[in-house]
Each structure stands twice: as C-alpha cells, then as structure tokens.
Design goal:
The structure holds two protein chains of two kinds.
Chain A lengths: L3 H32 L5 H30 L1 H10 L2 H16 L6 H27 L1 H8 L5 H5 L1 H14 L3 H17 L1 H6 L1 H21 L4
Helix pairs in contact in A: 1-3, 2-3, 3-5, 4-5, 4-8, 9-11
Chain B lengths: L7 H5 L2 H32 L3 H33 L2 H8 L4 H11 L10 H14 L2 H21 L8 H22 L4 E7 L2 E9 L3 H21 L10 H18 L4
Antiparallel strand pairs in B: 1-2
Helix pairs in contact in B: 2-4, 3-4, 3-10, 5-6, 8-9, 9-10
Classes of the chains: A mainly alpha, B mainly alpha.
C-alpha cells in the first residue's frame, strides 16, 4: 500500500534538499561575485578530492545508518542542517525513547520530524544569538575554566544517552563494549580518530551477538 | 572586479556575508517549521496525544542547547582564520568543526591568518561546501529507494521478528563506539594544534581520563534521574533528564580541570 503522507514528504524533502544545496553554495558564490575573485581551481579540486576520499563513502554510510532512525522528513531536514551524530541523531533517539515510538512507524515519523525541526531551530537561534553577543560571550566561552566542559560534550551526551539504551539490553551491550575496549588498548588513536569506522565495527559486533542470542531464543 | 582591492578582513566581515548568514538561518527556520507543521497535522490524523508532541518539542530543545553552544564555540575557534560570518554559515548547515578545519587546511596548505588572501578565502569556502555535499546527494537520489527496499523489509513484523533488534543493535553499537572514543583516550590521542583558527603542522600526543569520567558521570546521573522518573514518579524531570545528566557530566570535567586533571 502506498503511504500517501510518506510520498508527499519525499517530494517536499527532495525540493527542500535541492534548495538546501543551493543555499549552501550561496556563501562561496556571493564571495566570488562580490569580490570578483574566483576560487583557485587547482587547489579547490585537490582539496575536494582529498576530502572526498573520506566523505564520499562517509556520506553513503551516514545516509544508510541514520535515515532509518530519523524517518522520511527528518532525514531530508538533517542532511541539510547537519550536525547529525553530535546532535540530530541522539536528539531523535532521546525523543523517541521519551515518546515510546517504534522505528519506521507513522508515530515515529512525527516525533523524529518534530525533534529534528526544533533541534535545528535551537542551533541556528543559539548561533545567531552568539554572533549578536559575541563580545561579552567570547571570554566566557573561551575561558580556561569552561574549556574542558565543551571539549567533552560528546562524551557527556553519549554517556547520558547510553544508560537509556543499555538499561534494557545488557546482554546486547557486552560484545560491542568488549570489542571497543580491545581496540582501544591495541590502537587507541585509531579508535578516537576514525569514529565512523568504529561505529560500523561496533554495530557489526552488536548485530552478530544479538543474532546469536535471538536464534538461541535468549532474547 | 568589484571589491578585489579590499583587505581580506573587509571581505570576511562584509555586511553582505552576514546577510547570507541571516538568509541561511531564516531558510533553516522556515524549512524546519514547514516540516514540523506537516508532522503536527499528521499527529492529529493519527490521534496522537498532544502531550507526546509537547514532550518531543521540549526534550529536543532542552537537549540541543548544550551541543549548540559547543557548535558556537567552533565558530569562535575558526573566527581567527576565517572571520565570523563564514564559520557561522558553515556550522549552520551540513558540516562540523573538525571537517571545516581539515577542508581549510587541505584547500590552502600552509596559509595562516597572517597571509590569507581573498582567493584563498573563496577557495576554502567552495572546498568546504563541495566536499561535504555527498551525504545530501545520496539522500536526494537514493534515500527513497533505500527506505522502501531495505528499511521497510527490515522493520516488517511477522511473528517473532529480528527487525526491532536490528535497529536496537545499531543504537547500541553507536553508543559503544563513543564509549570507545572516551575509553581509548586513556591510552593516547592526537590533537592537531590550532593557532588563529587554523591547523598547524604540530601534532600533540596526549592521554586523558577526563572523557571517560564525563561519560560515566553522565551515565550514573542518568541512572539516578531515571530512577526518580520511573520509581518516584517525578515526571517533570523526564523531558530534561538528558540535559541535566549532560550538565553534571560536563561539570565534572570543569571540577577535574580545577583540580589540575585535564
């Protein structure tokens, strides 16, 4: 059966995505037009190629991993507004956990869309307020006292979220935690510099152990 | 040529670049409200309680404040090299601080705040924009098909199904990876030195226990707050428990810093 709402959201989402990509290109293009200075093509191509080695497969993996969690509208919205893993994805995980909705259901689609929409608005409002109040804020936010807090905001975020997801799934947690601990001891700098690859490894470890537990009817 | 004789600082702080920033902000707010409006309409069709929508809004806003301040610190970090307006625009859309710094470094290697030119600036702006666009393009062209061919099949419920466990496993793997990120720093991590908002060639190797403590403190505080919500019926905390746990976790890093542990 065709889900009319979902079809409509794909249509709006794609229009929004095209507009979003054009908006992203607005800044460099306006700089070019207003100054009359073109980008250095050779440097630009070299930079784009070097970055794409990581970000082209990264973009595909992100789309495949996060879109089922986000749902239709939220995926389009999040892939324009960005900050997926450090904000939008955990934000949706938190909201769906609070509202008790299940992935790929109409209710989850509603909750995740609202969650990403208000998270995006919060971010741009805070950035804009920050720009307006830059002079009084800069010394506070860059103070040595507060620096450690914001250096480890991601650890605080996933630590807090971790309990929510671990509490009913202790058996599933064992395998990925053991794997990341072993990797951390053997290749620590790889673990903390290649998070996307570690996510894939940890997800595979969880899937294998959960499949074994599922087949043995333990879970 | 219109403004090419202008100094780089005049371009970085030009009113028209701020106007682009304001436009990008309005675009994101309008798009977000558009999708939120449709989602809200759908929730009424589904007969979802208004309370659920309110919970989703309040928890998402309260949750997003701290990470957003972190993103704003990224704007300040980059401002020494690129001014305020371009980092503001870049971090309002798809991108992240480490990505933008890497893009700037790869596009114009060796250029610093003291010798950056308008050509460097426009080259950096294009490089940052083009190389991150892959995720958006994959979403634009393949997401719909991926959703119907893979996600729908994986979540189909027929009796005892592995589907829900599949996504539960993705969540748990994701969180475990970030536990690994914190834990591995006990043994070593590299930081590229940032001077005046740009990477230098210096790589500093360090170890730290702080992120692991922050992770564990947030985890334990969350456990306590969850106990209050579930067992003591303190329901108002529910929408804020993640933010509270994060604040206390981040506060532990400040306290450790005061004690000389970084």
């Amino acid at each position: 059966m065709v889900d009319v709402y979902r079809e409509k959201m794909h249509k709006y989402g794609r229009i929004f995505m095209v507009m979003g990509i054009l908006v992203m290109f607005l800044a460099p293009t306006v700089i070019w037009l207003m100054t009359g200075v073109a980008p250095n093509a050779a440097q630009m191509v070299a930079g784009v190629v070097a970055l794409s080695v990581i970000y082209l497969p990264g973009g595909l993996i992100e789309m495949m991993t996060y879109s089922p969690l986000l749902g239709t509208s939220a995926t389009y919205l999040a892939f324009v507004t960005g900050n997926l893993i450090n904000l939008k994805v955990p934000c949706v995980m938190n909201a769906t956990e609070i509202c008790k909705t299940e992935i790929n259901t109409p209710e989850n689609e509603v909750v995740s869309t609202i969650s990403v929409a208000f998270s995006s608005i919060t971010t741009v409002v805070i950035l804009s307020l920050g720009i307006l109040m830059l002079i009084p804020l800069q010394p506070v936010l860059q103070s040595e006292l507060l620096a450690p807090a914001f250096s480890w905001v991601i650890s605080a975020l996933f630590g807090a979220l971790g309990y929510k997801y671990f509490k009913n799934n202790w058996l599933l947690v064992i395998a990925p935690i053991v794997v990341v601990i072993i990797l951390s001891i053997l290749v620590p700098t790889f673990v903390n510099s290649q998070v996307i690859i570690i996510i894939i490894i940890a997800v595979i470890a969880t899937l294998i152990s959960s499949k074994i537990l599922f087949n043995k009817k333990i879970i | 040529m219109i403004l090419s004789s202008l100094a780089i600082s005049d371009v970085q702080e030009a009113w028209w670049l701020y106007a682009v920033g304001a436009f990008v902000t309005l675009f994101i707010i309008s798009g977000s409200l558009f999708f939120a409006y449709h989602a809200n309409k759908k929730s009424q069709e589904l007969g979802m309680p208004k309370e659920s929508i309110k919970k989703a809004i309040v928890s998402s806003i309260s949750f997003s404040i701290l990470p957003s301040i972190g993103i704003f610190i990224g704007v300040i970090t980059m401002s020494g090299f690129l001014g305020i307006a371009l980092p503001w625009i870049r971090l309002s859309v798809l991108g992240a601080l480490h990505y933008e710094l890497m893009a700037a470094d790869l596009a114009v290697e060796g250029v610093t705040a003291s010798n950056i030119t308008v050509e460097n600036f426009v080259t950096i702006a294009y490089t940052m924009t083009i190389a991150i666009v892959w995720g958006s393009l994959f979403t634009l062209f393949f997401f719909k098909k991926y959703q119907s061919k893979v996600v729908d099949k994986a979540t189909k419920k027929e009796g005892r199904s592995f589907g829900p466990l599949l996504f539960q496993s993705v969540f748990i793997g994701l969180i475990s990876a970030y536990f690994g990120d914190a834990f591995s720093r006990l043994f070593g991590y590299n930081t590229r030195e940032i001077i005046d908002g740009a990477y230098t060639d210096n790589v500093i190797r360090s170890t730290t226990v702080v992120p692991l403590i922050v992770f564990l403190v947030s985890f334990i505080v969350m456990m306590f707050l969850d106990y209050l919500v579930e067992k003591k019926n303190v329901k108002w905390i529910e929408n804020f428990q993640l933010s509270f746990a994060m604040i206390i976790g981040m506060g532990s890093a400040v306290l450790l810093g005061i004690g000389g542990v970084y």
